[in-house]
Amino acid sequence: MSLEFKKVRSTLVVRVSGEMDMLIADKMRAEIDKRIDDRNIKNLVLNLEKVTFMDSSGLGVVIGRYKRITAKQGRMFIVGARPQVEKILFFSGVNRLVPLYKSEQEVINI
Predict the structure, then answer these.
(1) Residue 101 · residue 79 · CB < 8 Å
(2) Which residues are within 8 A (CB) of 41 and not within 5 positions of it... i.e. 6 or more apart?
(3) Which domain holds residue 76?
(4) What is the CATH number of the domain that holds 89?
(5) Which pLDDT score is estimated for 110?
(6) In total, how many domains does the chain have?
(7) Residue 99: which residues within 8 A CB-CB, separation 6 or more?
(8) 4-14 pLDDT, tens digit each
(9) CA dist 98 to 38, 76, 94, 95, Å?
């Protein structure tokens, strides 16, 4: 798993690559939270384009970041999820909390 971070105005874009599972959940949570807290971040975009696998620990990271960003009156978006990851997001109900989009460009302009 690797994370790439980009700040666009008050939005943090996190590009995730690899597997989102219990082996990386704590590291991922800490890295994202550090950037949310250290910078003037109001919104969060998780780009899951290169995520090949997600388990319940990965879902926990997503839901936890949703709670954290909405507590700051911000918004969260997921972009680029592959069909197998998108299916997990739908079955778990995460898509009812966090809107799913095809590309970063769609949400950066919101």
Answers:
(1) yes
(2) 7, 10, 11, 12, 35, 69, 72, 74
(3) 2-108
(4) 3.30.750.24
(5) 57
(6) 1
(7) 77, 78
(8) 999 998 999 99
(9) 23, 6, 6, 5
